């Protein structure tokens, strides 16, 4: 399903319709249990046609339109598991979790191994703060579908929240490997394979901070490089697929590179190493003014020729074009241009004095 789903919630008018539906669904299910067929739908519409219309409305994000249709399907076909799950999900998306759980319990009574229903029940438990119950549901899904990327991802988030970082890393890696198609699931903004990579990068960064704080620079930098590798992969996947434009992967990678530059400077590592981090930032995000400026400053300190200064000028000019109000960009651009206008002998003196 496409990315049109964005954890949709209903507008005021739709919500009013759904309130009526929530109030009525209990007696509809109750009538279904005792075999009551209730009123015939308009024009004696067959159940299959009603289900098709409900699915079309649901798949296009029109929850208020799909809800009454699914309820009518259930009134006449109480064994329809998909209708129960989809109606439950519509309730869940609008925070009517008690009604959603009722529907999910009904679905699982009919099909105890249904992974979609179990994942939805896990989400409801998670939203209700019942993390242990949520994890139990996800693990039940993994018992029958060990490569379910969604279940793996959420088990990983529970491990991470519990500071079981090694376990989280393993599960996130499995989730990333399992989601080979990178299809955006319903009601999500990005595939779980991308989400897992981002969380894996964040977990590595959590661990590397601990190492840096405990004076374990080499171990911390090794963990940071692991984070950057997985974030580079996530960014590359986003940029080379239909996900292009999803900004979180780029933002996470930029943040990680900036952190690397900071730690390199604190450890007094060679400026060329710091420069490499900033220049990678400009490649990932050509609109990052600060990265262009920082790279320009390092290149200016190392400049040994007019050609070097011309490169510095290009960096400052890029920063200035991106933000003409940036004082640092403006003053440094003027300064380097003044140096470039000097006679060769004067310029040679200045460059010779450059550390």
Question: How would you concisely characterize the structure shown here?
Answer:
The chain has 355 residues and is an all-alpha fold. It is built from 17 helices and no strands.
Please state the CA-atom Rg, rounded to the nearest Å: 28 Å
Strand content: under 5%
What proportion of the residues is helical, as a percent range? over 70%
CATH-defined topology of the domain at 1-126: Serine Threonine Protein Phosphatase 5, Tetratricopeptide repeat
Q: For the record, what CATH class of the domain at 1-126 applies?
A: Mainly Alpha
Main sheet attributes: strand count, strand direction, barrel closure: none
At the fourth level of CATH, the homologous superfamily of the domain at 1-126 is Tetratricopeptide repeat domain
Question: What structural class is derived from the secondary structure elements?
Answer: mainly alpha
**Which spans have pLDDT < 50 for at least 5 consecutive residues?**
1-20, 22-41
- What is the H/E string? HHHHHHHHHHHHHHHHH
Mean pLDDT: 87
Global shape:
elongated
The appropriate CATH architecture of the domain at 1-126 is Alpha Horseshoe
Tally of contiguous helical segments: 17
Describe this structure in words.
By secondary structure, the protein is mainly alpha-helical. Among the domains are: 1-126, Tetratricopeptide repeat domain (Serine Threonine Protein Phosphatase 5, Tetratricopeptide repeat), CATH 1.25.40.10; 288-355. Helices cover 74% and strands 0% of the residues. The chain is built from 17 helices and no strands. It has helices at 12-33, 47-59, 63-76, 81-93, 97-110, 115-127, 131-144, 149-161, 165-178, 192-213, 217-239, 247-266, 271-284, 289-302, 306-322, 327-340, 344-352. Helix 6 (115-127) runs antiparallel to helix 7 (131-144). The longest helix is centred in the middle third of the chain and has 23 residues, at 217-239. The termini are far apart. 39% of the residues are buried. The model is unreliable at 1-20 and 22-41 (pLDDT under 50).
């Amino acid at each position: 399903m496409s990315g049109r789903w964005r954890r949709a919630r209903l507008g005021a008018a739709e919500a009013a319709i759904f309130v009526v539906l929530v109030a009525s669904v209990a007696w509809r299910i109750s009538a279904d249990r005792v075999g009551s067929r209730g009123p015939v739908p308009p024009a004696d519409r067959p159940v299959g046609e009603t289900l098709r219309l409900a699915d079309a409305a649901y798949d296009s994000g029109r929850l208020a339109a799909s809800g009454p249709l699914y309820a009518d399907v259930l009134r006449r076909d109480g064994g329809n598991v998909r209708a129960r799950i989809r109606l439950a999900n519509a309730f869940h998306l609008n925070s009517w979790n008690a009604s959603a759980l009722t529907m999910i319990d009904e679905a699982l009574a009919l099909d105890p191994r249904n992974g979609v229903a179990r994942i939805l029940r896990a989400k409801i438990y998670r939203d209700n703060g019942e993390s242990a119950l949520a994890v139990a549901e996800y693990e039940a899904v993994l018992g029958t579908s060990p490569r379910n990327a969604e279940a793996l991802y959420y088990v990983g988030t529970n491990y991470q929240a519990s500071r079981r970082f090694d376990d989280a890393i393993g599960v996130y890696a499995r989730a990333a490997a399992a989601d080979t198609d990178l299809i955006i699931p319903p009601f999500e903004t990005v595939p779980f394979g991308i989400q897992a990579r981002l969380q894996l990068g964040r977990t590595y960064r959590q661990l590397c901070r601990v190492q840096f704080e405990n004076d374990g620079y080499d171990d911390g930098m090794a963990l940071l490089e692991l984070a950057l590798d997985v974030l580079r992969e996530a960014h590359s996947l986003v940029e080379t697929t239909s996900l292009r434009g999803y900004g979180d992967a780029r933002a996470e990678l930029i943040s990680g590179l900036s952190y690397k530059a900071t730690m390199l400077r604190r450890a007094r590592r060679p400026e060329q190493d710091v420069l490499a981090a900033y220049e990678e930032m400009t490649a990932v995000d050509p609109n990052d003014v600060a990265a262009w400026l920082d790279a320009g400053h390092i290149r200016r300190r190392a400049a040994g020729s007019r050609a070097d200064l011309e490169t510095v000028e290009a960096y400052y000019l890029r920063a200035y074009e991106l933000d003409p109000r940036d004082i640092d960009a403006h003053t440094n651009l003027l300064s380097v241009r003044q140096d470039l206008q000097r006679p060769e002998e004067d310029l040679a003196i200045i460059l010779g004095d450059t550390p």
